[in-house]
Specification:
442 residues, mainly alpha, Heme Oxygenase, Chain A, 2 domains, 19 helices, 2 strands
Length: 442
């Protein structure tokens, strides 16, 4: 344990504050904050800040949630998460179609990658990164009025992340300090925490330097503007295509309540960003589009989303894009062709007649109430079996356990799910496996 100027032992929080003082001071002097105080900060810089912080918070909060070290759980709980507030602010600005700032987004993604690596190698040290972000709640007390004045924002609209009730902020900070100072840590673990804090301050400084000032050519459209966790994959630059893709993602989401019940809001964000990526595929030839769709279908089917879901999304997307930008109808037709190919692969294992019979038996077994709650469950199960026969060993294994959870579903439902999978496997024709998926271009 380190000591202060007069030989007294420093608490963990005092040690973190002393060790990161210079890095924190450098961040505070960024031109971004000077422009904010002068009411000269562009909206792209503020929204870019929200997007960058959403990327960082999403990775850090997930890592803290899953960390097995009991000392992390003694400090962190999911209720401390601020990602929902950031997403609320981003939804507020979504109709304005604010451009991304490429260099800032890249810096945020690099920061997130560093946090992922730290979560694998030194998970306890993530509490040092949390110290930086928790401390920002104190700064928000001062910064919130500046943002409200600069962008004519009222209430919490566009300011949810910064919104604070002063007595509660200081009370929460005091409680957080108490939990941190109560940890039992070795000297090495303390050093790793201060290293993590300094590293995050340094990375944030790079992000804020990129947010303001920025070059005009830095303005772009990135997947992170639709979903902070989506990474670097491309999305359309045409706002008409973006809007059509978002509608298609939402429409598919609504057709299958299974999506929402299993994956929640996070799943919806991925449905939208995946739809936006799919909208870019029309620039390639039909063979490449099919290869990419097969690749994504295999990935999603292994995560509990049978290729039927992707097929429906592609069908909706092709129609929405053609209506939005008729001049590119030929390109969008390739998406419809890829959707048809997914359907043909399924039908090579199970015919429409067999699928309909399975659906009828399932509906009779679970009754109208449950059939309404999760429509087309039988189709999802049968498709998972077809995906399994198509070479995806995880297709059923990633879907069936969730649908047979006794804490979520009644016995009659579970029996019907198991019977549908068994019958589909018995009736399905192994078909011809077309071989491994082609390398991705994404």
């Amino acid at each position: 344990m380190k000591t202060g100027l007069f030989g007294q032992q420093l608490t963990l929080m005092e040690e973190l504050r002393a060790a990161s003082f210079l890095a924190h001071a450098r961040l505070q002097t960024a031109p971004f904050f000077q422009a904010l105080a002068a009411c000269q900060l562009p909206l792209e810089s503020y929204v870019g800040q929200l997007r960058a912080l959403a990327v960082i918070h999403s990775v850090l909060e997930q890592a803290l949630d899953s960390c097995p070290d009991a000392r992390v759980a003694a400090v962190w709980n999911h209720g401390l998460g601020r990602l929902p507030r950031l997403l609320q602010d981003l939804r507020f600005f979504e109709p304005r179609a604010v451009a991304d700032l490429k260099e800032a987004a890249e810096a945020a993604l690099k920061t997130a990658e560093g946090l992922r690596l730290r979560s694998m190698e030194k998970p306890l040290s993530l509490l040092g990164a949390l110290y930086v972000l928790e401390g920002s709640a104190l700064g928000a007390v001062i910064l919130q009025p500046l943002y409200a004045r600069a962008f004519l924002l009222t209430g919490t609209e566009g300011l949810s992340y910064l919104h604070s009730v002063v007595p509660a902020v200081y009370r929460n900070w005091a409680q957080y300090q108490q939990r941190m100072n109560g940890l039992c840590l070795s000297a090495t673990e303390r050093e790793q925490m201060t290293e993590a804090a300094n590293d995050l301050f340094a990375q944030l400084n790079i992000v804020f330097q990129a947010l303001y000032p920025f070059r005009a050519e830095s303005r772009t459209v990135l997947a992170t503007s639709l979903n902070p966790e989506a990474g670097r994959h491309p999305v359309p630059a045409d706002p008409r295509e973006i809007a059509a893709a978002l509608r298609a993602g939402d429409d598919c989401w609504q057709q299958f309540p299974y999506f929402e019940q299993r994956y929640g809001e996070r799943g919806q964000r991925f449905a939208r960003s995946d739809a936006a990526w799919l909208a870019t595929l029309g620039q390639y030839d039909a063979t490449q589009v099919t290869q990419q769709v097969r690749w994504l279908g295999r990935v999603l089917a292994g995560r509990g989303m049978p290729t039927l879901l992707l097929q429906v999304q592609l069908e909706i997307l092709a129609t929405a894009l053609t209506a939005a930008v008729p001049a590119k109808a030929t390109d969008y037709a390739k998406l419809a062709q890829a959707a048809a190919e997914l359907g043909a692969r399924r039908h090579s294992h199970l015919s429409d007649t067999q699928l309909q019979a399975l659906a009828t038996h399932f509906a009779d077994a679970v009754g109208p109430e449950w059939n309404t709650r999760l429509p087309r469950t039988s189709d999802l199960l049968a498709c998972a079996v077809a995906d399994e026969l198509d070479g995806n060993d995880l297709a059923v294994a990633s879907l069936q356990p969730w649908l047979t959870d006794a804490g979520r579903f009644p016995a009659a439902w579970i029996t019907a799910v198991e019977a549908t999978v068994a019958t589909a496997r018995q009736q399905a024709c192994p078909g011809a496996n077309t071989g491994p998926n082609q390398p991705e271009v994404r």
